[in-house]
Write a structure and sequence with these properties.
The mean pLDDT is 95. Strands 1, 2, 3, 4, 5 and 6 form a six-stranded antiparallel β-sheet that branches. 23% of the residues lie in helices and 35% in strands. The protein has a domain of 100 residues: Hotdog Thioesterase (Thiol Ester Dehydrase, Chain A, Roll), CATH 3.10.129. It is elongated and about 55 Å long. The chain has 146 residues and is α+β, with helices and mostly antiparallel strands.
Length: 146
């Protein structure tokens, strides 16, 4: 088994893309997340409830979408304890089709490097059907000393 190559702080370059992930979120994913999180709101798994609430269909949990985006960064950095701050705004719902699911594209790039504090800010873009679904999504990472 090969070990992942972890990023070296001194090798970070401003504007470099550090993660690109394309995935399909399914209704099964929503049900599993509902059970794990305790968020059993039926708009996340029942078409009739979602449409009667005036929604375009079953929606992914916002925190699930945010968590998937953060996971792309954690996979890159290799150590979740390096993330000391994470923030996002929910800008558009992710409608999850019963058959096709929902395609998500995640791109993370280096937006700021602080050499004194050995920190970096990673800006994350998450899109669904060509539209951004999370806004001002940023993760702040602390790298260990030399």
């Amino acid at each position: 088994m090969t070990r992942p190559v972890l990023p070296v702080f001194e090798n970070l370059v401003l504007s470099d893309i550090v993660a690109e992930v394309d995935l399909v979120l399914t209704r099964d994913d929503l049900v599993r997340y509902a059970g794990a999180s305790g968020d059993m709101n039926p708009i996340h798994f029942n078409d009739a409830t979602a449409t009667s609430a005036g929604l375009p269909g079953v929606l992914a949990h916002g925190m699930l979408t945010a968590g998937i985006a953060l996971q792309a960064i954690v996979d890159w950095v290799g150590d979740p304890s390096g993330v000391f701050s994470y923030e996002t705004r929910f800008t558009r719902p992710v409608v999850v089709d019963a058959v096709d699911g929902a395609d998500l594209s995640i791109t993370a790039k280096i937006a700021r490097i602080d050499t004194t504090m050995r920190t970096t800010r990673i800006d994350v873009t998450v899109t669904h059907k060509g539209q951004t679904v999370l806004g001002k999504t940023q993760a702040h990472l602390q790298f260990p000393g030399a």
